[in-house]
């Protein structure tokens, strides 16, 4: 039966959650847990060199005072402690480097998951919030995958301390068996144990309360963090800088965002810090009380002669370590269980990505390619109105289709469905007669070269931008640049294909114009050389000469591919053998330019004349 949200997990479920986290950690940083455990082992045992030998030293001083034995003991204490402390520092340095690299790998892991997500899920605020919560847990709280190593290490260290303390105490008891010793009075020992158990229970209860309250804060922080991240990115975006200046948005952003994003976020940090102070403060008082109380108990028993002088410090240290290790062990177990709440958020995100990365058939050409829309209707998840209504059409290899229509008529939405980014609510789409859902998603996407309106050019070298790879075929890149009309400009640059763009990465990076960016995006589409080439407003930023150059050789460039052009410049569509006219999510007309113009009451005629009148 499915467990309801908020219900407690069983022991085996908790173990399963932890095991899954460990497998992710070992995948991202194979030696991280081992090195942490070795360090924990060393740190836990090092104090016992002094504890064990100090008893010998004091007893020797109080007894025979053999200088050889004393020197030998002191040397062992100093050299042993020094050696293990140096080893511990060395391992800590390694751990620090591993932590940085782990953070990097984990972010990469999250980014990969995000890239695997279905496109529609990427737009959904719920999944952005999940992502934000996971990243938030790395920086804001003590929870999540990054805490699990610390918690396991702490459990291991405390277990070692516990076992060692028990051995030492047992040794003292065996040595003093038959005589009076630390625990000879049953009543006092029992009372002491009860008080200590009470203190431990109080610490564990505090830790549970702190974890619970912190998780409550964390759950609320994600939304604030999301807003915060979004807006501060906007503030840092070079492209936004122009708008901010022209429209005097600075005050608006600072005032509004300070109140809506930054302030709640700061409040959460302050409340979290308050939580730490409250619970940490109480636990420090409890630990101090345990230490003082134990000292008094041991001191009184030493005064009565129940334990030797040498055993006072050894007994005290062992008992305090025993108590603190039991206390920390319980706290770690409680924290590791609380930490599972954070892990569940991470696993929810991973599982969504797993569902998203769909495997299936590999598309195969059958004398070419054919995609068909069968009565497709589609509504965006957040919308009330249908963006596409009962659309049917077919695109085949060796065909050029233009798509025209007023803003918001559904042209880009149709392309997004064609690429499989969204699923239609009604109807279906087929590739070579098979529904596109049955194909392997990545292999299906390989079929498309699309230049979207909101394409992105990276601050990387020109060659890498075109090939979308660090390794590329230079001849093919030059060929793609020539088709897009950007080869001469690239030739004139000293670094040519290695020329970095923009100044984000390389201070000598080249700033290019909007039209040149568009040419680069077009070159990228040509380089991919996919069987379907789709241009959504491909030449909006191009000058008339560049545009006419591209169109004049278009037939030759696209060859036998299936080409789709979305354009508001109807003159650019004339060369297409078929034009689809979209209006309010429907295809209302279909034909050649000449055919469509003959219908004087048609939308195409209206759109054509609206543009043509300015050229007459
Ligand atoms: N991600 C989205 N979520 C919700 N609604 C959307 C989304 N994208 C587009 N829409 C809506 O769907 C409708 C069709 O949009 P679409 O982008 O397909 O139009 P278009 O014909 O390409 O417009 P344009 O010519 O301006 O590019 C519009 O009403 C738009 O507001």
From TrEMBL:
<keyword id="KW-0067">ATP-binding</keyword>
<feature type="transmembrane region" description="Helical">
    <location>
        <begin position="279"/>
        <end position="303"/>
    </location>
</feature>
<dbReference type="GO" id="GO:0005524">
    <property type="term" value="F:ATP binding"/>
</dbReference>
<keyword id="KW-0547">Nucleotide-binding</keyword>
<keyword id="KW-1133">Transmembrane helix</keyword>
<dbReference type="InterPro" id="IPR027417">
    <property type="entry name" value="P-loop_NTPase"/>
</dbReference>
<dbReference type="GO" id="GO:0016887">
    <property type="term" value="F:ATP hydrolysis activity"/>
</dbReference>
<dbReference type="GO" id="GO:0005886">
    <property type="term" value="C:plasma membrane"/>
</dbReference>
<feature type="transmembrane region" description="Helical">
    <location>
        <begin position="69"/>
        <end position="91"/>
    </location>
</feature>
<dbReference type="InterPro" id="IPR036640">
    <property type="entry name" value="ABC1_TM_sf"/>
</dbReference>
<dbReference type="Pfam" id="PF00005">
    <property type="entry name" value="ABC_tran"/>
</dbReference>
<dbReference type="InterPro" id="IPR003439">
    <property type="entry name" value="ABC_transporter-like_ATP-bd"/>
</dbReference>
<feature type="domain" description="ABC transporter">
    <location>
        <begin position="371"/>
        <end position="609"/>
    </location>
</feature>
<keyword id="KW-0472">Membrane</keyword>
<dbReference type="InterPro" id="IPR039421">
    <property type="entry name" value="Type_1_exporter"/>
</dbReference>
<feature type="transmembrane region" description="Helical">
    <location>
        <begin position="148"/>
        <end position="174"/>
    </location>
</feature>
<dbReference type="GO" id="GO:0015421">
    <property type="term" value="F:ABC-type oligopeptide transporter activity"/>
</dbReference>
<feature type="transmembrane region" description="Helical">
    <location>
        <begin position="186"/>
        <end position="204"/>
    </location>
</feature>
<dbReference type="InterPro" id="IPR003593">
    <property type="entry name" value="AAA+_ATPase"/>
</dbReference>
<feature type="transmembrane region" description="Helical">
    <location>
        <begin position="37"/>
        <end position="57"/>
    </location>
</feature>
<protein>
    <submittedName>
        <fullName>ABC transporter ATP-binding protein</fullName>
    </submittedName>
</protein>
<keyword id="KW-0812">Transmembrane</keyword>
């Amino acid at each position: 039966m499915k467990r309801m949200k908020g219900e407690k997990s069983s022991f085996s479920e908790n173990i399963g959650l932890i095991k899954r986290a460990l497998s992710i950690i070992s995948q991202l940083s194979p030696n991280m847990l081992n090195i942490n455990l070795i360090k924990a082992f060393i740190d836990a045992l090092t104090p016992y060199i002094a504890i064990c030998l100090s008893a010998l030293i004091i007893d020797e001083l109080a007894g025979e005072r053999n200088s050889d034995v004393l020197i030998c003991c002191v040397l062992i204490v100093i050299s042993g402690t020094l050696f293990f402390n140096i080893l511990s520092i060395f391992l800590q340095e390694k751990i620090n480097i591993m932590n940085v690299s782990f953070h990097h790998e984990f972010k990469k892991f999250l980014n990969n998951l995000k890239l695997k997500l279905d496109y529609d899920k990427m737009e959904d605020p719920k999944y952005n919030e999940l992502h934000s919560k996971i990243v938030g847990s790395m920086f804001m709280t003590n929870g999540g995958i990054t805490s699990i190593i610390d918690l396991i290490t702490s459990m291991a260290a405390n277990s070692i301390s516990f076992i060692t303390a028990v051995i030492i105490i047992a040794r003292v008891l065996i040595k003093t068996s038959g005589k009076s010793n630390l625990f000879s009075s049953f009543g006092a020992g029992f009372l002491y144990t009860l008080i200590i158990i009470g203190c431990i229970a109080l610490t564990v209860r505090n830790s549970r309360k702190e974890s619970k309250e912190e998780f409550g804060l964390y759950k609320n922080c994600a939304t604030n963090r999301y807003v915060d991240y979004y807006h501060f990115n906007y503030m840092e975006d070079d492209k936004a800088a122009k708008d901010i200046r022209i429209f005097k948005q600075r005050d608006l952003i600072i005032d509004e965002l300070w109140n809506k994003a930054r302030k709640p976020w700061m409040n959460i940090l302050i409340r979290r810090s308050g939580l730490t102070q409250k619970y940490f403060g109480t636990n420090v008082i409890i630990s101090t009380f345990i230490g003082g109380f134990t000292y008094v108990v041991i001191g009184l028993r030493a005064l009565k002669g129940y334990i030797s002088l040498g055993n006072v410090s050894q007994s005290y240290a062992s008992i305090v370590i025993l108590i603190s290790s039991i206390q920390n062990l319980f706290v770690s177990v409680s924290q590791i269980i609380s930490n599972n709440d954070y892990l569940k958020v991470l696993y929810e995100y991973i599982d969504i990505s797993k569902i998203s990365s769909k495997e299936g058939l590999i598309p195969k050409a059958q004398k070419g390619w054919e995609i068909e829309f069968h009565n497709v209707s589609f509504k965006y998840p957040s919308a009330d109105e249908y963006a596409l209504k009962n659309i049917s059409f077919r695109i085949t290899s060796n065909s050029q289709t233009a798509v025209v229509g007023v803003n918001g008529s559904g042209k880009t939405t149709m392309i997004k469905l064609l690429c499989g980014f969204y699923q239609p609510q009604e109807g279906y789409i087929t590739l070579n007669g098979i529904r596109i859902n049955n194909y392997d998603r990545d292999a299906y996407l390989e079929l498309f070269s699309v230049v979207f309106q909101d394409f992105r050019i990276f601050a990387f070298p020109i060659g890498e931008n075109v090939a979308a790879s660090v390794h590329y075929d230079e001849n093919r890149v030059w060929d793609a640049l020539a088709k897009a009309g950007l080869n001469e400009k690239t030739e004139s640059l000293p670094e040519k294909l290695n020329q970095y763009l923009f100044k984000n990465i390389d201070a000598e990076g080249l700033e290019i114009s909007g039209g040149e960016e568009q040419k680069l995006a077009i070159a990228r589409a040509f380089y991919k050389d996919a069987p379907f080439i789709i241009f959504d407003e491909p030449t909006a930023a191009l000058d008339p000469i560049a545009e006419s150059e591209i169109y004049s050789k278009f037939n030759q460039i696209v060859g036998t591919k299936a080409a789709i052009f979305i354009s508001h410049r109807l003159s650019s569509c004339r060369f297409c053998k078929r034009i689809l006219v979209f209006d309010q999510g429907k295809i209302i007309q279909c034909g050649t330019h000449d055919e469509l113009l003959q219908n004087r009451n048609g939308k195409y005629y209206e759109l054509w004349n609206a543009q043509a009148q300015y050229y007459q």
